[in-house]
Design brief:
The protein is mostly helical and 247 residues long. The chain has ten helices and three strands. It has a three-stranded mixed sheet with strand order 1-2-3.
């Protein structure tokens, strides 16, 4: 997300990487030997000269992007999926009511939302991610599974995986810059990460519902009325049933 501060446009680091990612492969191997701290300094110097600065610079995002290039194909797929899975979990935690114990219970371990697939579907159903983002996350999840569920050598260039990569949507320069399946996978992973982080930053905890105060006379009176109404209805129903059976 970009924020205008005076005459300077401030950009978060993950959004910046998503924007520049289509061009990063052209800078290798220089980028592969550059530390996240050095990359941050370089980007600041370049962007300062163009009137663009960036804020909230979590270096783990830079490390994530740079390490994807250094990983094997299998490592790249597993690392990207794991990072996006965690980002999605953090988005859901931000959306839920502010109860870390309760959210941890369903998001961790064997909780109902502990899987990448479940988190994707819930985030989509409650309106936190778009249909296309959901599709790309599921493709990334399937690509991860192709690498994770076999001991055989698997590569991004393998036909089935290459097709999944080519079907990925969030590639800003899909028609201008041809790229390999692996390069497209990395580019889309960064774009998806930027979208998730942008939503997380603008999402607030749902307010907790207030407990029903059973000590209030009106509440107690209303409950008693409901009980009486149900009791009366059941009594009439049973009486009617007996009359029918007796006739």
């Amino acid at each position: 997300m970009c924020v205008e501060t005076g005459r300077t446009i401030a950009m978060n680091l993950d959004d910046l990487f998503a924007l520049l990612d289509p061009f990063l492969d052209q800078l290798l191997p220089e980028i592969s030997s550059t530390s996240p701290e050095e990359m941050e300094q370089i980007l600041n110097e370049v962007l300062a000269s163009t009137g663009i600065g960036y804020v909230e610079a979590p270096l783990d995002v830079a490390r994530f992007r740079l390490n994807l290039n250094r990983e094997s194909d299998r490592g790249c797929a597993l690392m990207a999926a794991a990072y996006l899975d965690t980002a999605l979990m953090e988005l859901l935690q931000r959306f839920f009511v502010d109860d870390q114990k309760a959210s941890k219970h369903i998001l961790d371990g064997t909780g109902v939302l502990s899987s990448f697939a479940a988190r994707i579907e819930l985030a989509y159903l409650i309106g936190l991610i778009s249909p296309k983002l959901r599709e790309d996350l599921n493709r990334i999840r399937r690509i991860r599974n192709e690498f994770a569920h076999t001991s055989s050598e698997v590569r991004f260039d393998d036909p089935e995986i290459a097709k999944l990569c080519n079907d990925l949507y969030h590639d800003p320069l899909v028609n201008q810059l041809p790229r390999s399946p692996r390069a497209k996978f990395i580019t889309v992973s960064m774009s998806v990460l930027g979208a998730i982080h942008a939503t997380t930053r603008t999402t607030e905890h749902r307010p907790k519902k207030k407990n029903l105060d059973l000590s209030q006379p009106k509440v107690v009176e209303r409950i008693q009325e409901l009980i009486a109404a149900v009791d009366e209805a059941l009594t009439k129903r049973l009486a009617s049933k007996r009359n029918i059976e007796a006739s």
